[in-house]
Design goal:
Elements (H helix, E strand, L loop, with lengths): L47 E2 L6 E2 L32 H32 L4 H33 L4 H6 L1 E5 L7 H23 L3 H8 L10 H6 L1 E5 L1
Antiparallel strand pairs: 1-2, 3-4
Helix pairs in contact: 1-2, 2-4, 4-5
Amino acid sequence: MTDRGLTPGDPLGGDDERERHPSGLPLPPRESARWQEPEPEQVPPALWRGEEHGTVTPGYSSAPPPGAGGSRSAPFPSPAGGGQLVLAGWWRRVGATAIDGLIVGAVALAIMAPLGVGIFASGNNETGVVAFALAFAAAALVVTLVAFIYAPFLMARTNGQTLGRMATGIRVVRTSGERMTFGWAMLREVVVKVLLFNVLLGSASLGLAYLVDVLWPLWDEENRALHDFLVQTRTVMA
């Protein structure tokens, strides 16, 4: 740099102290480090709530208080990502079970009653008594099969509903989001609910196991019965 001006390669004013390459040319300015504020932690939205419980649980939403306006459920996705689900309350489940029991009982009565009348009408006729007794046993087997198949058959065709559940506005869903199949419904309704909790454990505990299974949704945050834990199902509003 001369007294009167700048020579090629000289820095502008204020940059006399800039580092230079051994060749004499100035080095490019260094970029100052930029401070980047950390992004706020993303908190996943709540996905489940019970109809009768205020506790947030994963997968479903809850209905608003009685008389509240707006949609019945908060905009939270279902496990399959196909809409909004609201866990059904305990009384709805009990009502559906009672209605289904009355339906199966009415069918059983319609089949068994005529045979019972026939046995009494046969009097002392041993041949008639034996014939009606065999018919009664066969009818009892048919009634048992109907009782076992009733719920799984309807649940597979309606994706989780029986006539009782239709009446109370609820249905059973799988937590995986898969459709309710006949085999899965048979596992839930017959193998686990009836044979395991009612017959096997119920007999061993004088009915206590069945009672606990029925009452468990009252204090479970996701309204699950014990059989729901085993087969990974939930009962929701239809």
